[in-house]
Amino acid sequence: MILPYSTIAQTSRNISLGSSLTARNDDNSSWPSPSGEFAFGFQQIGKYGFLLAIWFNKIPDRTIVWSANRNDLVQEGSKVELASDGMLELRNSEGRQWGMWLKGCKQNFVSQSCDEASSETNLFYFQEMQNTKWYGGDYEQFTSVQEDWCRQSCLGDCFCAVAIFNNGECLKKRIPLSNGRMSPSIGGKALIKIRKDTLIPEGPNAKEKDNSTMILVGSVLLSCSGFLNLVLLLTTYLIVSRIYNKNAGVNQPYSVMPGMNVKCFTYEELNEATNAFKEELGRGAFSTVFKGVLAFENRKCVAVKRLDTIVGENEFEFKAEMSAIGRTNHRNLVQLLGFCNEGQHRILVYEFMSKGSLASFLFGESKPNWYQRRQIALGTARGLLYLHEECSMQIIHCDIKPQNFLLDDSFTARISGGPVQRKLMRPYMYK
């Protein structure tokens, strides 16, 4: 859960435990990714400082895409080491530990029920962590409040997993949490909500009781009649057949995918919405975009992106990509509304941008004024900042160009080009 200075270390198949890098001005102070597209290590900033970072490694201008110590450079001779426990440790030239990167942790108890939030407040307590903060993900913010008020507000809110209190300010956050930092300069405290009696101790006869139960159940099953076995086999066959037919393309009403605010459409619904994919909006290397109208959504206009046939290992890639994009939520990103994963069809449904692409706006007959240019530039920067540092699963777009920026009715810039996005799994390229 704690990710100091915005990263997670992962052991690479090409880097052995105990390996280290030393900050110096030569080519031996970085590790390239398996593809060579990225590199991780030290980059010299100015005359004496070094930045621990990840950058594009195949272009002359080595553009940094992530850094750990942008506000606190280390000196020459500092060292980062992949420790035996799989964590990265950064020490300055004097050997003092500057930072440690963890793989994180996950919740091991049942979350607070939203149906019975008021009656469950006494089942939770707060674990305090001083000088700790997670960046991004605030869904409520209060000022000029007391700490006790902040605690009670979080206890009574089933969505609140952590409350950050600092000088009268109360920030409520929900899981998942990432990009956490611990530093004396932060101040305040993090209040982590934990269920009481998370682990229920087992009695001395618990294991013996479990074994007796298993023996009893096994005896009953083995002594069942042939008729009961036949019923069980028939039930299993019907369940498997139903699952198979559903995956093979049986039309089901669309539903919301768990953990994501996107809908699952059938191919028939999208075929009808696009009038058999008639009106083409654009075409890319791996997909074609069509205009559609959702009759069951008050005739809402959408952009339907039909991907090329995906087979083999790319099936997992599609699901992972959709999961990453589906969890993003920012006013400068084109929102993913839904998807279709039926048979050979892989389709993504996005909100429709009426003003088209930034490229057509910049290079068209009607040129944007300087105010519009400034607003578009700021929107672009905010969207990229969210993707790189603020969303729960950090993403590198890798195809930034005017054609991949769309404009809504108010000419707000929205980043698109989802299928070419890549998750930065802190760091993804070393996994």
From TrEMBL:
ATP binds at K305. Its main location: membrane. It is a single-pass type I membrane protein. The chain crosses the membrane at residues 214-240. GO terms for molecular function: ATP binding; protein serine/threonine kinase activity. InterPro entries: Bulb-type_lectin_dom, Bulb-type_lectin_dom_sf, G-type_lectin_kinases/EP1-like, Kinase-like_dom_sf, Prot_kinase_dom, Protein_kinase_ATP_BS, Ser-Thr/Tyr_kinase_cat_dom, Ser/Thr_kinase_AS. Its EC number is 2.7.11.1. Keywords: ATP-binding, Disulfide bond, EGF-like domain, Glycoprotein, Kinase, Membrane, Nucleotide-binding, Receptor, Serine/threonine-protein kinase, Signal, Transferase, Transmembrane, Transmembrane helix. PROSITE patterns: BULB_LECTIN, PROTEIN_KINASE_ATP, PROTEIN_KINASE_DOM, PROTEIN_KINASE_ST. It comes from the Eukaryota. GO terms for cellular component: membrane. Belongs to the protein kinase superfamily. This is non-specific serine/threonine protein kinase. It comes from Prunus armeniaca.
